[in-house]
Amino acid sequence: MYFTHTAKAAVLSYGNKDKDTKNKLLITGFNNAAAAAAGGRTGAVSPASVTEEDLQQRIDVNPPKGTRDFPPEEMRLRSWLFSNFREVSRLFSFEEVDFPVLESEALFIRKAGEEIRDQLYCFEDRGNRRVALRPELTPSLARLVIQKGKSLSLPLKWFAVGQCWRYERMTRGRRREHYQWNMDIIGVPEVTAEAELISAIITFFKRLGITASDVGFKVSSRKLLQAVLSGYSIPEALFGKVCIIIDKIEKLPLAEIKKELESIGVLEEAIEQLLQVLSIKSLTELEEILGDSGEAVADLKQLFSLADKFGYSEWIQFDASIVRGLAYYTGIVFEGFDRGGKLRAICGGGRYDRLLSTFGGDDIPACGFGFGDAVIIELLKEKGLLPELGLQIENIVCALDTGLQGAAATVATILREKGQSVDLVLESKPLKWVFKRASRINANRLILVGVSEWQRGMYKRCVNQHASMYVPREESKDEMMSVPLIRVISLQNHEGFHSVTVI
User: Fold this and answer.
1) How many CA atoms within 13 Å lie on the side-chain side of 50?
2) What's the rounded Cα separation, in Å, for the pair 114 and 259?
3) pLDDT digit string (tens) for 328-342?
4) DSSP secondary structure letters along 141-208
5) Residue 461, pLDDT above cutoff 50
């Protein structure tokens, strides 16, 4: 068609033009194609000309780049994942909370230099307020804790499963919107809090069939960097910026890391000492350099001791280069990683004892983690651990006569009031369609409402394919719940079908 080769090529060549230019090119292309098909010259106006109004009705049916739809099969997987998040949280006695997806922009830009500042979906609303779609959940948690103030009884053990938004480069397991599971402990200064959180994540992994040979945890402490920098009189105000730069150590060449550290005022001698410490992979080596009297070493030794008591020592390892990219962390930090090396960080967290004061509140010791939904799904695919989650309905009810639709509705209501799921066939369909439908939704029972039995006021219960018994319908409501499942042998081409009950 002329449009395919001419107007479409023109639109592609004007890929960076404004929307109006593209629309005019498309309209011209459609109209030229119509004229050519009618034997006319290109550019000639034909009775079937496409108007701008027609074109505007043709919307892109794909979701915005970096976002997702959740059709039923994907929604079943999401619900399954979230139910595991919630069940693990329940096992550890955490209470669920949630916050607005739309928050004040100021909540996320208090700390300068964070990558997250440049990834905000932010705008000015109609009330001239600067707002943003939340990129993470922890600042919202801090806001709520400050809001509730002294009415809260510490310690708090809260969890949330919420949608987050970041305008960032997309890679495998990284989207511009994702759901995140957070667990936070507020009011406990001891390392036992971090140990408990890591235990919760490992419990989750085990529930899904993931082992210590699949996933590990790199653990360190921000206090290590503080100890090094304080020895060179580096101002505390630079500490957050240093951590943000160090967090890029696996993404950028070492020369680039040095250049960025120099640009914020870190001395060359301090940089060399810092990089030496960051290369350490064992606590023994760390003690040799920093000694065993500092808080960082003591905290880490206690965490590894607790890991042994919790029973997950094989899951964790010391790695001084782990600092996490958010400026508010103050102590122990940890990161879950794919031992196969194919995926980015699976989850991460740490201690943030001074976050509340950045929002005007009184500091309370706290720690927590964030666990996104995208990377874990990729890992489960990689390991062949995604569950089979077909639709599962307990009953399908169908009237064999249009005059019995009301009767079929009565049967469906009885079963639903008993807590059973029912797919009620809402229109007249041939039995062949009903059998296929029952098989597709994995129905446990097919209940057919027939004329003769209903008129007799009886309920026919199939005992097996050869025998049945009748009881008065009014006496059979409770029995409807215990109809035995029988294999339908006489029906051909309906494999996977479990039972038929006739009323």
Assistant:
1) 21
2) 18
3) 889 999 999 999 989
4) HHHHHHHHGGGS-SSEEEEEEEEEE-----BTTB-SEEEEEEEEEES--STHHHHHHHHHHHHHHHHT
5) no
User: Nearest to residue 497, comparing CAs of 427, 451, 426, 448?
Assistant: 448
Q: What is the amino acid identity at position 488?
A: V
- Token pair for residue 330? 């103050």
> How far apart (Å, rounded) are the C-alpha atoms in residues 185 and 207?
22
CA distances from 16 to 13, 20, 67, 224, 242 (A): 8, 12, 23, 49, 38
- In tens, the pLDDT along 373-398 reads 999 999 999 999 999 998 989 999 99
Strand order in the sheet with 102-104: 102-104, 130-133, 121-124
Q: How far is CA 176 from CA 17, 65, 164, in A?
A: 25, 8, 8
In SS3 terms, 205-228 reads as: HHHCCCCCCCEEEEEEEHHHHHHH
- d(CA 227, CA 273) in angstroms, rounded, equals 11
